[in-house]
Write the structure tokens for this entry.
Amino acid sequence: MGTPRFDPTHSLEFNLDRGSVKLSGSLERVLLPADALAALVRGADGETRRDFARRLGTEAGRRVAERLDGSATPEAVAEHLGGELALMGFGSLGLERWGRVLVITVNGSPLRGEGDEILAGIVEGALQRAFGRSSGVVPIQRDDQLVRLLVVSAGAADRVRTWLGSGLSWSDALARLNSGGGAA
Amino acid sequence: MSGLNLQKLEALLARVRRNRTAAPVRVHAAAAAPQPVAAPPAPLPTSTPKPPPVAASAPPLRMEPPVASSPPPRVEPPPYVEPFVRAEEAPRVEPPRVEPPRIEPPPYLEPPARTEPSPIEAPASVASPEPPAVATPSWRPEPGSAVQARPTSVPPMEISDDDLLEVSTLPPDAAPAGAESPQLEVGAIDVEVTATDAEEAEEAEEGLPPASSRRFKVPESLDDGAVQGDSEREIPVKTPPPESGPQEALPATGLEAPRMPDVAELEADLSGPPSMGPTAEQLGETIELEAPRGPELEIDVTVVADEEETSVPAPAEELEVSLPSSSLQSGLYDVGVGSRPAASVEAPAAEAPKLAATAPHAAEEAGPERTSRPALGATDVAAVALATPSSARTFVELLDASLGL
């Protein structure tokens, strides 16, 4: 059975009479300026930001789960999950494999560096909702446009944060993960 | 004035008179002003709409004689002078009233057409200050025709050669005895004759024939034409006769003249002795070289035979193998041909020191023993471990692998 392609036709609905916006029949949305959202996120505490982001990711994972199952290929997941992320306006999603390590990239996020934790929370919520896997997502590298999000277990995520905090480069952290040095 | 010119003038005068009498023939088609005197009253209604200015004023005046029922024995001239009313007064003239029954054409009115005063007299009687073009001679009825008024814009009378040609076919009529010749026409004729006399006088003075023939003059009558044809035929002097044939073409001169070769110079060159070589002009200045000084250089081109004998034949020559015999077909080779056994056998071991001639003989004699490495057969030197295909076929597997770290 082939994987259906991502079809965003009529995904976004503007009801001008009611003054509402809906995305794929979900609850009503609010179109906000990215910098206003970034300021709001910046002023909130960490737990609030993570909860806010996971709610967004959970909704995206739900729509992905409606079209994909456990046999979906990485390409299909990148297409559908990336499509949902693009509809929300958080950038373009991609997948990378560094050995056995899965890395998700997001390019062109309007929240820039301040929104990396938001993106990490969205991915955690989506993977939890779509595939039933609890994961810890850590931003390990970022440049002007692209951010790399490491998808590992919650324990490995804490270790990587420690490594990165100690000055270890993200490539060495990935190599250490692949060599099993991070195992507790 | 020669007698011939006088005859011409007389013929012209006679023709003018005839033209005046025969003018209705031309005007008949444009008859728009019928005359109540010469024509029956019936055509009058048809001519009322728009006659010419002069003609429009003439008929009403003529149709108003008080004694229309009883025509007078003779028409007086004053009523006929009225047509010279100015053009501005014409609209005020009442249109002709058609009263045919009361008007009867007088039968004796035909003669007055000729006896009427000349056109020159009429302007004098009217004393009109208008220019001659407007005060044209009054129109006079002419007998036996539907008379038409003459347009005012037409000059009084001009006689051309064409008119003369028409007249020449008719016999000349004698002019009426009592008719007066119109002075104006005579004057015009005088002018013509004067011009002709002037030309002839000039020709006579020069005493030379004209460059081209004059225009053919129409004779007055057939007899004159026959005589004139014989006597006055002119032959152009400068015209080449048609029987002259082709003329000799003269060489072109000026810019159009082509460059002609100097035949005399060419003949002089041909007559001279043949040159056996380049001339002094072609060679220019020749410098004589001095004889070589010093010892002579000798180059020995002899071949040393000893070197050929002592030289070692090239290895390539030793490896030469004869090609398969030509008896075989193309693409086949002789299986019996060996794999160069002679080359390996013939390779003399004693010739190796010759190749290493630069080495000192003492070192060669006291060198270490060399042990050559045994040849290795074909074997797998490297073992390449190919990358195993991705174990994670699905995203879930990949995710689980990453989560298992």
Q: What stands out?
A: Strands of chain A lie at 12-15, 20-23, 28-29, 92-98, 101-107, 136-142, 146-152. The mean pLDDT of chain A is 92.
